[in-house]
């Protein structure tokens, strides 16, 4: 009955590029659950575009020395998002 999640290969397509972008800050803040973090990392391994974005975000945050959405370069994020078809502005992460 219970799926053996520990032995299941993680599906890198379980989350989309859009979802990954939204989750980047949560991931870097350590705010994701164990299962979400595994999905996030599986997608990063599988997707060059998101891996590049993730590295840029991490460097940006390291430079700023803090993690706040307001401080992230919105233009860089928008450029990345524009690279993915189907991105909808209405799906942007809600402000906290
Ligand atoms: Zn991706």
Task: Give a verbal description of the structure.
With 96 residues, the protein is mainly alpha-helical. It has one domain (17-85): Arc Repressor Mutant, subunit A (Orthogonal Bundle). It has 4 helices and no strands. It has helices at residues 17-29, 34-46, 48-64, 74-82. Helix 1 (17-29) crosses helix 2 (34-46), helix 1 runs parallel beside helix 3 and helix 2 (34-46) crosses helix 3. The longest helix has 17 residues, at 48-64. It starts with 16 loop residues before the first helix and ends in a 14-residue tail after the last helix. The model has no long low-confidence stretch (mean pLDDT 77). The structure holds zinc ion. Residues 17, 20, 43, 47, 49-50 line the site of zinc ion (ZN).
- As for the number of domains, it is 1
Number of DSSP helices? 4
Which consecutive residue ranges, at least 5 long each, have pLDDT under 50?
Answer: none
Oligomer: single chain
Name of the CATH class: Mainly Alpha
Distance between the termini: 38 Å
Sheet-strand content, in percent, reads under 5%
Mean pLDDT: 77
Portion in helices: 40-55%
Largest sheet: none
CATH overall fold name? Arc Repressor Mutant, subunit A
Radius of gyration (CA) equals 14 Å
User: What are the bound molecules?
Assistant: zinc ion
Globally, the shape reads globular
Strand pairing plus helix content: what structural class? mainly alpha
| CATH arch. level architecture | Orthogonal Bundle
């Amino acid at each position: 009955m219970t799926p053996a999640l520990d032995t299941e290969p993680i599906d890198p397509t379980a989350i989309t590029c859009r979802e990954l972008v939204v989750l980047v800050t949560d991931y870097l803040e350590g705010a994701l659950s164990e299962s979400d973090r595994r999905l996030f990392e599986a997608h990063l391994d599988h997707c060059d575009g998101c891996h590049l974005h993730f590295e840029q975000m991490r460097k940006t945050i390291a430079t700023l020395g803090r993690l706040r959405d307001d401080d992230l370069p919105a233009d860089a994020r928008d450029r990345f998002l524009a690279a993915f078809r189907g991105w909808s502005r209405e799906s942007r992460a809600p402000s906290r």
